[in-house]
Structure formats: C-alpha cells, structure tokens
Queue: 2 jobs
Job 1
Amino acid sequence: MEELNERYQEVLYYIIEEYIVTASPVGSKFIAGKCSLNLSPASIRNIMASLEEKGYIYQPYFSAGRVPTSSGYKFYINSILKTKKISKQQKADMRSSFNISGKDIKKILWQAINLLSEISHYMPIVLAPERTYANLLHIEFIKLDKLNILVIMVFEGGFVENKIISADRDYKQIELSKYSIKLNEIINGHNIDELKDIIIEDIDKERESFFSLLNGIIFNFDLVKNEIDNENDYLFIGSRMNLFDEPEFSNYEKIKSLIKAFEDKRTIIKLLELTKRKEGIHIFIGSDTEWSDINGLSVITASYRSKKGFAGGSIGLIGPSRMNYALAIPTVNYIAKLLCDII
Amino acid sequence: MEELNERYQEVLYYIIEEYIVTASPVGSKFIAGKCSLNLSPASIRNIMASLEEKGYIYQPYFSAGRVPTSSGYKFYINSILKTKKISKQQKADMRSSFNISGKDIKKILWQAINLLSEISHYMPIVLAPERTYANLLHIEFIKLDKLNILVIMVFEGGFVENKIISADRDYKQIELSKYSIKLNEIINGHNIDELKDIIIEDIDKERESFFSLLNGIIFNFDLVKNEIDNENDYLFIGSRMNLFDEPEFSNYEKIKSLIKAFEDKRTIIKLLELTKRKEGIHIFIGSDTEWSDINGLSVITASYRSKKGFAGGSIGLIGPSRMNYALAIPTVNYIAKLLCDII
DNA sequence: AATTAGCACTCAATATTAGTGAGTGCTAAT
DNA sequence: ATTAGCACTCACTAATATTGAGTGCTAATT
C-alpha cells in the first residue's frame, strides 16, 4: 500500500465518508466546503485527479463526481478509519439482549444474528461451530422402529447432530442403551477423528454384537465432517431486507443477482471458513475474493470459539462496500466476543 | 358458483391456459384462432364481455385483452381443469429421489422441498411435523457443565428437539442417566400434554431428588408446544428464485414486497396450519386469504401424516396465481403421499 | 336471430427530442 | 502553488410523437 500525504488522505477520507452516506459520486465543491484545508474546488480537483491515478477513486462517467474503489476502501480501513468505541452502556445492552435460559446453541446464534441485524442494518451471517474438531460429549442410540435407529451426537457447547442409521437386525431399546453407555465411557474428550480410530481399534473384542451400529456411526462421522452437507444447520443467514434497502441494490437485476448469490450458501460458507480459525476481524472488500458474483459488497467477519474447547465458528456482516465500517467493525468484534463468553 | 354454458367455459379455459403461459392479457383474436368453436373474434368479444360481467375476467385497462380474476381461477380449478396424471415412471423417479439412509426427518423434508422445486419451478414450503400431538419416544439428560443440562426430546418419526435447562445443583452425568431411564419408562406412547400431567402426578414420590429437572422439562414442554417460537426449525422455505423469475414479479417494488412477506414466516405458518389437520389438497387463490400482503399469489397445500401416529405437518407450493395447476396439484399431492410413506 | 366485417377509438409501451445542471479539465491570471 | 473563469460532457428528467394490439359499436351478412 502506497503512502499518501496528509492532504490526499483528508480528501480521500471525506470522499468515502460522504459516499457512505449518500451513495452518489462526490464532487470537488462539496469536499472544498468540508475540508479543513481551505482549498478551492479547483485545487481539490487536482488532488482528486491524482488520487484517481493511484487507483483509490474513479469516475463512473466523464464529469461525474468521484466514487471510492476497492483499494480506496482498503486504504481507508487500514490507514484512516478510526472505529467508534462501543460505550459501556451499549455493551451491557448487547449482553443483556441475549436470553440464554432454555436455549440451545442454535437459538443463541440466531439471537446474535438478530442483534447484529438491529444494530447494523446490514445482513448478518453466522457459521455454526465446526463439529470436526469439537469434542463429543455424548452419543445415544434410540430405536425408531425395527430397521431404523436414531443416533444423537452431542458436541461440547451443546450442539446436537442427529442421524438415522439402518440396523442389520431388530435391536431392543434396552440393548441400545447398553451400547450407548459403553460408547459414552470411551468418548470423553475426543473429537470424531480420534474416536473413529478408537472405535476401529479398541472395541474389537466384543464388537460383533453391535458391529453394524459401530459401522453406522463411523459412516456418520464422515457425514458430520462434511459440514457442507448440513448447509441449513451450518450457515444461518439473517434478514435480507436491510441489504435490499440500500440504494445500490435498488434495481431489479441487481436484487435478483443478490438473491441468487445468497441462495447457494456454499460461497458464503467458504468465505467464513477461511476465517474461522483465525483471531480477530477480517474484512473482504468488493471483488477482493474469488466471490466475483457480486461486486459492491463487503464482508466483515470475526471468529468465535468456546473457551475450553476447540469448537468454533464465525460470524459476519455483509453490506455494501460503502458500509459504515466505523460502527460495523467494533460491533461484529464485540458480538463475537460475547459469543465466546456464552458458549 | 354460477353455471356457465359450454361455449363460455371454453373461452374462459383458453384465456386462462394462455395467460398461464404468457402472463399478458389475452385478446379475442387469439382465442378465435385457438377455439374449436370456430367463431370470429367479434363473437368471442361478446362472450368475453359477458364473462367479464360475471366477474371471471377483467381488463387491466380499456382496450387491453382479458386477464383472469380470482373467481376465474377458482371456477377454472373447480370445474374445468383436468389435472395431469402422473405416470408410473414419474412416480418411481420421485420416490427414488428420496435418499433416506442416514437422514433425519429434517433432511428428508428438505429433500421434499428440493424435489418440489425442481418439478414445479415455484416456491415450495414445508411445515415440520407438529410436536404437540406427537408421541415422545425418548428423553435424555446430558450434562454440559455445572449449571447447564441439555435435554433431548425425541418424537415419533425421529424429530428431535433440544433445550438447555439450568440446574439447581451440580448433577453427575451418571445421576442424570438414571433419571433419563426413569422418565423413559413412563414415556412410551404419550404426547407432551399427557406427559405433563403424568409427571406432575405420578412421580411425586421421589421427585425431590430431581425436582428442578422435572420442572425444567415441563417448562420446556410449553416452549415446544409454541411452535412459532421455533420458526427456523418449523417452517422450511425452498428456493425463492423460481418465483422471482416469474414476470409478474419483475419489478423492484413487487420483488421487495415479496421478500418482506416471506421474511416473516408467521403468515405462511398460519396458512399451512389451517390445513395440516385436513385431508387432501387445499388451494388458496390470490387475495382469498387474509394474507393481503401479496396479491397475485396462489398456494397449493397438502397435509402429510405418519401412519402410526398423530404427528403430521403440511407441504405447499407458492406460485403466481397463474400457476400451472394441472401439473402442480398432482405433484404436491403425490409428494405429500410419499412423505406419509417415508416418515 | 345469430354472426361477422368494418371502423373509429383507447391507451400502454416505445422511441425521440429538448432542456437542465452538476461536475469536470484546462488555461490563464493571481 | 493556487484559483477564477469558461467551455464542455453526460446522466437525468420531462415533454412529445409514434405505434399497434385490442376493444366496443354499428351495420351488413348468413
């Protein structure tokens, strides 16, 4: 990232701040009025011309005002932006808006989404805790009928995964409970990869009696690992309306391409998975990602992680590139922190 | 519903069939060419004028062609329409596109949604089986940490509900398992309302030992009953794209009002709940419902129900009022039947 | 009496044109 | 180095004209 002298930075700053509010190209006259430098519009125009040469802003058409480019936003975020501090009062409000009692993790994640939605007016997304590296707490077999057995796997933090396996014979529930207990003895503190090995090796002695169940479980471990298979339980998407109210999406074609892009959750999942192991805030701007489907969008993400274990996921906020970063960044950050505490 | 002589019916029929395809007003010349009656456009116009008087069609503006009204569609569906029979081959295809092994009910319902989406190109919706009247199969307590206990409730058909309750003291997992077993002994074949009474009355003798757990369960029974609380696990909505591709929603305002209407799932839930106890197909046309949010939509619904028990829900298809009823109705019907078999 | 050809009329949709104004780049004066 | 002055660009808006599919009505036809 190139250096910019102070005068240039100030002009870029005001262009972006204004564009964030109005969503229309910003002209030299406006900047001249706003700027503390007390320069005439003509001078500002010179500065703008060279900011454009450096690639930070551009003109949508000859003789329009200037609009920030992706690198413009990037520079702004990295070098100019001062994020707002969240007041203690606001922090307390956010914390207390989580109503935990009687709620499983999924509900809590939805609460996070709604909170983000209310505060930011952009589109929140949440990736549920990954199950691959999370420790299993409990496995239970429940007989549904002659041929079908429900396997319930509870992961640390309270995330539950259900799978149905078909039995090789008609197990009695009592029998199943016995096997549940046996498995639960070896489960403690292992993730599914480790358990797979343990089951394959250690249970050999008497495994004939419930061989098909064990096989079923191992098979389902693989299903659980492939989180994409679980899309609807893995990625939660908040209200789209806020985004669609933004002026850049106020035409038919754009709104349709947006809906299409969000309907296939896999691209968003990929994006969030990039960051779920990493600390801190990550920001994707415009066409930075391979996610070329949609230009003009930015994504702010932060990961969360339970204190004791390895289970973690990430939360994010999708908005127009001209989003209010000063507010959005600390909000995403703080809600991720809250989730760490709660889970 | 008034009687219509054959000639009138034929004209109405062709107007609707054509409008279903083109989505634009149908003129007399076209009908004259299509009709087996061999009448001139002028005669058709006379017939159209009196169909309009009866309220089956209308002109969007003076000197446009005719468009069916809600009552027009209703008459068409009840008296003229001959639904397509689904061939054995198609039925077999549909059946085999369900991949049941290793899938819990939720996944199967999603498969139903995807199937409906592929076949119909409208927007499928599915209401998960109601839990209030479904029998409980299994209850399990799992210790998450000192203060939190996960309660897993498995309903017939394999639907699983998780709730977290906070404990009054630090239960050991072994202890919790004991209580699980005790509860499971009395559970069999009762729904949550019945169980509530049983728990309150019958377990009195030694309930002091896990009094708070029982209380927690009873409280959660009430939560489970209030299915609206579970929106995201109760109503599943399929791909919206198909609907948005329909020409009547090809402008910004309409598409936005549609999105808004679907974002609040409660209206759709109410609609589906009206029919989930009733046999057979139900069709809501245009502004028939109190669901005045959106005109120009129709909803086809059918209920499904597991054979043994009382647990049932419904599936539906939302499309423009000018939807292809001949195909959509038997498809919804057959998929509902398939669900009955599978669950 | 039922049907139809003929015709004037309506009105959405599309294309055409003109006018407006915010904003620019360049040049010459400060 | 800065700025006032000016001609120029181009999206946006409004006003106007054109087109054509479709109608209702009347009078002629079967």
Job 2
Amino acid sequence: MKRKITLKHIARELEVSISTVSKALKNSEEISRDTKEKVQAFAKLYNYKPNNVAISLKNKRTKNIGVIIPEIVHHFFTTVFRGIEQYANQKGYNVIVCVSDESFDKEVINMELLANGSVDGFIMALSAETQLKNDYNHLKEVTEQGIPLVLFDRVADEVVCDKVLINDREIARQAVNKLLDQGRKRIALVTTDNYLNVSNKRARGYFDALEDRNRAIDENLIIKLPYTYLGMDKVPIQAFFEKEAVDAAFCVNEMFAVHCMRVAQDMGLKIPEDISFIGFTDGILSQYASPTLTTVAQHGQQMGEIAAKMLIERVEQENDDDEEEVFQTKVIEATLIERDSTING
Amino acid sequence: MKRKITLKHIARELEVSISTVSKALKNSEEISRDTKEKVQAFAKLYNYKPNNVAISLKNKRTKNIGVIIPEIVHHFFTTVFRGIEQYANQKGYNVIVCVSDESFDKEVINMELLANGSVDGFIMALSAETQLKNDYNHLKEVTEQGIPLVLFDRVADEVVCDKVLINDREIARQAVNKLLDQGRKRIALVTTDNYLNVSNKRARGYFDALEDRNRAIDENLIIKLPYTYLGMDKVPIQAFFEKEAVDAAFCVNEMFAVHCMRVAQDMGLKIPEDISFIGFTDGILSQYASPTLTTVAQHGQQMGEIAAKMLIERVEQENDDDEEEVFQTKVIEATLIERDSTING
DNA sequence: CAGGCCTACGAAAACGGTTTCGTGTTAATA
DNA sequence: TATTAACACGAAACCGTTTTCGTAGGCCTG
C-alpha cells in the first residue's frame, strides 16, 4: 500500500525546502531550471497530487457546492441535479447532495452541517415542510454569513437570494387555454392535497385561463389527491369524473395524470376524444404512458445549469467589501409538449 | 454580514490561549469550571462551530464519501443513491456524487479528483465504457492507496474490493421459469445492443431456464435494442413479434418492457392472455403502465444501504498495519413482483 | 523550609499546502 | 575594489483545528 506523497516527502528526499518544491511544481520563475526539472520529475514518478483539504483550508474555498433537495427518486429533481452536476464539474466543482425528504429538520441539519466550511455555496429546493412552516431562518443564517444561495423551483419570497423558476402560472394558463380552445367545457383541476408553492401557482394559472374566457370557477371541478406515488384509490376519482361529467383534466404532475387516464380508460372513456389530459413534468411516464401524455416540460437540466452558473459566479466574485448585492430571479419558459392525450393541431 | 468565528477570535476576546478554548469547548477536565463556562457561553452566543475543513485536515478524515454512478436520471441508480445517502447521513457522512455519464474518461477524472483527499472512500457502479474497455487501473490505484472501495451492481471480477450485487442470473431464471410454467412456448429475450455486465447475467438466467426444461435456445427469439430511452423504432419489434409468434417476453429493463407491451397492444394482442411480459427494475413505469408490469424488484435502496454500511465499516476500522484484508461480496435477493402483464397465480 | 504534587493553563507541533519576505552567493557595474 | 542587482533558495507565517508536553503557582507534607 503506497500512501499518498506530500511536499514534505519530496523536499526531504531531494534535500531542498518545502517552499522550493511547492514553487518548482508551480513552475515558478524563482526556481532554477535544474531544480524544477528534478522536482517535477520526482513528483511525476511518485504521482504527487496536492491534498485538496489542505488547499481548501489555505484558500478558504472548498470547490464544493451543496445541493439540498426534497427528493432524489424523482424525475424532475434528478434532471435539475444533472444540470447542476454537469456545469459544476466542468467548472471544477464537486457536488455534495443532501436529501431533505420533505422534512424541515433534515433540511436544517444538513444545511448547518455543510455550512461549517464544507461547501462554498448552496443550491436548493425547499422541502414541503419548510414551506408549510414558513420558517427560513436556516437560510438567512447562511446568507448572512456570506455564503451564496440559489433557490430553484420551490422558492420563497421571504428569502433574499438568487432564484431560478419556471413560469408555472403562465404555462398552466396556456395549457388550460389549449383545452378550452378545443371546446372543452368541464375541465378538472387535479392537484395536491395541501397546496405546495408550485401546485398553487399552477392552480392560479388554471383560474387565469378560465377568467380569460369569463368562465366561472366551479369548485366541484377541483380534486385534491394525496402527494404520494402509489396506492391512490381509484374510486373517488371515478366518482368525480362521472358526477362532474369531466371532459378534460389538467393535472399538476404526471403521476396524477397517468393515474387519472387509467381510471378514465377503465370507465370506457376514449382519450382524447371523450376526455383530454395534460400533465406536468416531462418524465418517462409521460413518454411511455398510453396514450402518451401531453405535458409541460420544465427543462430541469437547463434549470440546474443556470442555478449552478449563478451560484458559481457569486462564489467566484470576491465579495470582500459589503456593497449592496443585487439578487436576480431567472424565469425559464416551460414548454407544452403535445402528445396523444389531447387532440392535436 | 457576520463572518464565521474561530477559536482564535474567542481566545483573543477572552484573553486566554487557543488551546484553552479548544479544551474548554470539549469540556476537558484540564480546564477550570469558571473558564469552561465563560468560553462555552461565549461560543454559544456567537454560534461558534468548528470548521470542517480544518478538522478534516487534522484528522485525515473528511467524513465524505464519493459516489460515482453512470447516470442519475435513472430510477435504479437514484434508489441506490437514496439508500447510500440515508445510511451515510445517519452515520454523519456526506455524499459527493459524480456522474460518469457512461464515459470511461469522466469516471477516471472524477475518481482521481476525489481521491486526493476529498473523500474517505468510494461507492460506485462502473460505466458502460469502462466495462467495455476492461480497464480498471483507476480503481486499482485508489485501492492501493488504501482508500476503501465498494462496487455495486455493475462490478468487475478483476477489481479486488467489497461488492454488492443482486442475483441477476438466478432471478432471471426464475422469471423465465414462471413464464414456462404458464405454458409459454416462444419466449423472447429483449436485451441491450452491446452486452452490459448485468444484461449478460440476465441473459444467462434466461438460457438457464430454457436448459432446465431441455429446451433449445432459439437465437431468433433474442432481440437487441439500443440502450436509449426514446425514439425506439416500433417496426422491427412488431416484425419480430409477428415473425417469431412470440407469446411472452422477458425484458432486461422496464422501458423495453413497456415499449414492447405497447407494440403488442397496437398489434391487437391481449396482455397477458396472448402475450405476457416481465421486466426488470421496479420503477414508476412498471407501476403505472397499462397493464401494470410484472417485474423484478432490485431493491436498490437496500443495496445502497448495504454498500454504505460496508464502506463506512472499512473506513472506520483503522487499518494501520498491512494485514491481509478479506473482501466480501454481498448478494441481495431480487424479488419478482407479479402484476397484470402476466397471468397471476 | 525544601520538595513534591496538583491544578489550570499556554506554547508549540502537527495536518499539507501557499506565499511573503529575507538572505547568501555570484556577477555586473561604477 | 566597493556597491549593487539578479538569482535561487529557505524560513516562517498562515489557514483552523487538536493534542502533547511543559510549567507557574498554590498547597501539602515531612
């Protein structure tokens, strides 16, 4: 087992000082050609690589960024992560991921742990619990220490920092307008039980679209499902579809949409003729469902790239003096991908 | 902006030495009750937290583990990651994730970067390219330096380290046997284009099952699809089903299975009556497909937990002396989850 | 009253680097 | 020949901890 070699080893072996070795490896002008060659050859031979931790301590820069997300077994978050990781890596940064599991406490603990020097900045989407509690002190503490923070998708107005979003409300409005264009009369809103930030925005887009046409909002057309993947009971959905004579459904995620499509099909309804569906999140489910699902693509990867870019720029702009920082919110345009669950054209 | 406070600050402020502060915060017997109280109060007031990087340097332990996986937007890998992250976090470790993107070079670069002190050990699944190249020098270099490594799922016999696997071959055999039990005569094997390690094992399980019944292997019943999610051409699959009069298909992943099911349905075949399907990976696709897909659950999360446990145990057992290490390979039993794409009972 | 022993603390080394500054040697210049 | 500048290198500080060891002062004991 050949242990890692350090500057000290090289110095001792070559009978020069540590500083000389350090400079020689950096090709400093100060060092003679002879010495440089000798040192570099030796370093190469023994595969010397500087210790990242020591460099971090010296530079007060870890080249790590912390990503805290509510879930990882989740298509949208993984795509965002993909974007972050790709951009960060290309810029020489590593990514430490923590999953808050939608829990406020875990979010706080992870954040505090990483904030003690482990990362140069944070990218995160708030946990459901945090949004419910409306408690953002852990975020404030971090930003007050001068650690950059970028929030994406699940953001909070109360937190002052850079943000990356999609135009949830507007794209929802467009989606519902599309259904209205096709002559749909009774469009259901299939949403989550307790309003998450984003579901809320999507619901407002749904309302906007109805208002655009001066259509009254019918509370009976709104159904709330528990925010869990499996075990959704089909009975209430079927009852809902029958009772309300629903002819289209706008769903706040793809799982709800696919699930509802199945219920409709079991009822003997034809998709998209009798009933159309639009979902949110362009994951594999949407692509492989039958019929394939018309859905809103959130461009998660792009979102991740932008978040990483914003963060790294903040990290690298030496913000020594306490000039007032100006934070920005970047809005990414979502796109409606039309497939077979709606009438095309 | 209140910067992080250090021992030095506390020492200066309280007019004691740094060592005293350090000891006082650790409640050392050496320090008088008075001083301890004073220091601890001050530290609490200013929210002192030791700097992780300095501690890492001192301890030669980062409490970070590196995870290198081929893909992240992928159900199985995220579930494994979930298990790793959960176990590691509970043990006070953070997880740095790098995505190799199935590329040998990226795998090597990331690994070398992290090996220079950033992590205490690695958990990884080999990239496709690495398996094809059969080049594992980057892994050997790391293990030779005494950095623990655990491989999962996509492993290589050439690498000497701890491993976590599922019984791919055996479960595939069981799955195909189940189809045979149900009287299926022409069972297709739907696999990947260039044999990945795991696909290979699954294929061998398929062969095993046929051999169990002394059934000849019909090469015509094997179809290879490109390892990509989308844009799979339906025509060759349809032609294949028709020509070979396939009455069941064993697919090496769930995407292939769902895609093939759709083709079969479009051909007017009834599932599972006319044709049955079994897939691999129990993701949302399997759960939401129609009909729901009978599939092999790989228990990714459990795999991740075990991998993390193995790694952390290695990391924490001071392996000072160079006693011969004994590595173990842990095999997790996969389970066949029966749903509607096969005949039940 | 000298010697020994606690008590309570500080100095310093160590982890592995980077960087500033000082200095001995040589060669060029006045 | 004395001064000076360039060259090549080393000492030491620093990043923020932990930990070993040394010691000043007080008290007890013989």
